[in-house]
Amino acid sequence: MQLVSYIITHxxxxxxxxxxxxxxxxxxSTIPFISRYRKERTGNLDEVQIGDIVKYKEQFETLEKxxxxxxxxxxxxxxLSAELRQKIEATQDIxxxxxxxxxxxxxxxxxxxxxxxxxxxxxxxxxMSQNASDVDSIAHKYIKGDISSAEDALEGARHIISEWIxxxxxxxxxxxxxxERFAMISTKVVKSKKDDEAAQKFRDYFEWEESLSxxxxxxxxxxxxxxxxGFIKAKITIDDEKALFKIEDRIIKSRNAxxxxxxxxxxxxxxxxxxxxxxxxxxxNAKEKADASAITVFAKNLKQLLLxxxxxxxxxxxxxxxxxxxCKIVCLDAQGNLKHNETIYPHPPxxxxxxxxxxxxxxxxxxxxxxxxxxxxxxxxxxxxxxxKVHFKNDIxxxxxxxxxxxxxxxxxxxxxxxxxxxxxxxxxxxxxRRLQDPLAELVKIDAKSIGxxxxxxxxxxxxxxxxxxxxxxxxxxxxGVNINTASTSLLSYVSGIGPKLxxxxxxxxxxHGVFKSRNxxxxxxxxxxxxxxxxxxxxxxxxxxxxxxxxxxxxxxxxIVEKMAKDLGKPIPELIGNSTVLQKxxxxxxxxxxxxxxxxxxxxxxxxxxxxxxxEQAKVFTFNQNIKSIxxxxxxxxxxxxxxxxxxxxxxxxxGIKESGLxxxxxxxxxxxxxxxxxxxxxxxxxVKVLEVDVPRKRIQLKLHK
Length: 707
Known about the structure:
Blueprint: H1 2-11, H2 15-26, H3 31-37, H4 39-42, H5 47-77, H6 82-90, H7 94-101, H8 111-117, H9 121-129, H10 135-140, H11 150-166, H12 169-182, E1 184-189, E2 207-211, H13 217-228, E3 232-237, H14 240-251, H15 257-306, E4 316-320, E5 327-332, E6 338-344, H16 353-366, E7 371-375, H17 380-387, E8 397-401, H18 406-410, H19 413-418, H20 424-437, H21 439-443, H22 462-480, E9 482-483, H23 489-493, H24 499-513, H25 530-536, E10 540-541, H26 559-569, H27 580-583, H28 598-609, E11 639-648, E12 651-655, E13 662-665, E14 686-695, E15 700-705
Helix pairs in contact: 1-2, 1-5, 2-5, 8-11, 9-11, 9-15, 11-15, 12-14, 12-15, 13-15, 14-15, 15-22
């Protein structure tokens, strides 16, 4: 099977694992389901390995689809020989395939095409044979129609020869190799834009030169963005003389008059056809690598953000702080339902701090509030200071929560459907409170590109980015599991095998018939068939079900195995839950079968020992330095508490409690070489940083990670 061989070549994974995984994918199985519940068939492949199989499967299918299109085009032109067909069918990469097809492409009117119409192809062939010594006199024979001189005839013949050279795979590959190894990217500022305020963030690239193969992804993306915005011009260069010499060495085999004509044709082919096309291809390849790197960074950040520490089912008072417009307050119950909302005005111009403190105190008591969430935007620090002055009757934890994307959510269709009778300010406050309770459940409602993590996410290939982010969200949602009786449509739509339509059907069924009492009830949802149940049931949890396995990651298809274990141990299933001592008495080999092996049985035991264990850490209270209110309060040498709020290839950004985030450059993360920023810090990690440099005019802060 060509597909399996192709995937094995690119992944080096075992053949049986690849073959079985492809079969499961073709059968409609998802990555989370395969990695968790089909370990025996895949040879225990993890999500990353299965993701690679999916990637190369799609790549192969794209290649095969392109081959079919090309073969049909060649058949229509009546130029498809058996040899050409075999060559195309044997091709294993898209670049080679396009090179093979290049001579047959129906292109716009070219100089070579015009020359052919003027009957100059025989002259071109005579020159390329390199046998004639007097090409001028031969060229005279072709003077007719639009060709008025021997020079016209020779020029037209050279255009045809240029095209032949351009279509030679060996020549193209040789230039590709030179571009790959030696290409430089250089930039020059557009003089008329040099002093534009918007251009200043690209000041470093007003005059720049660097190896294209070694330029870091963030720098290339910055250069390309600066060029797109019209502030700089970028160009790719190699040693043209060396490139021309290599082509001449391949093609010119004589020292006669033909040689000089071919030399001119080579120069024309290189300057007009080969270099523009292949340097653009090299830049596109570099951009694809930069995109892949940036998407990987974004995906890692998103995963850490989605798996951020949840406070859990606690009653929360959430505040979206502001000055002139006041602070929007909402009270949420433990399930995130809105119970109350109003606005207080503790800050200028109204400055009713005493009234605001009384109101917060009374609301905290009335709604038995257990935690307070404050958005980290405008007036956040002032609001936090106010809250810390309030004397609450009970111990209430105070958290500062990232507002990134809250305004996107509050104006979204999802928010309007959830809160049709409330304005965007109330919805924004609700989002802040729910993020504290369960970041994953709330953040899935927002377009991942708007969450505020990542690196040049709007400059990379949007289709690839979206695909990768959807995979990350799906992975996180299924790794944590979803309470089917409280989850939103957005959250349910990422559950394995469910998707947006079935998620809507689940919520509608829940609204109409009340909560699901068992996993079997899920089958009653309209259009949720056997396949969707197989893929999704184990990721959907049901609290307080009669069967405790319904609130675990044990798949319903394995319930009979647990029942047999319970029978063998002489205990009911509820007495196995959390009972490691009893479970360790089992000999798992006794439960192995053709379809169930040790990996699945070991997973079952782990789940019975700690059912529904949340893989996320518990939320921790954090306090910024209360004396730091703006960038002007910072001084070199200060040690400050901060929270990592973005990670890039060149370092980590840290929120120290002011509007501007500071950067810990990779060189300041450790005293030793740093190859991976994520190995040293993680998103939302609480850290201590040292202030190295403060550039107030450019609003830049350089930090060092303090160990």
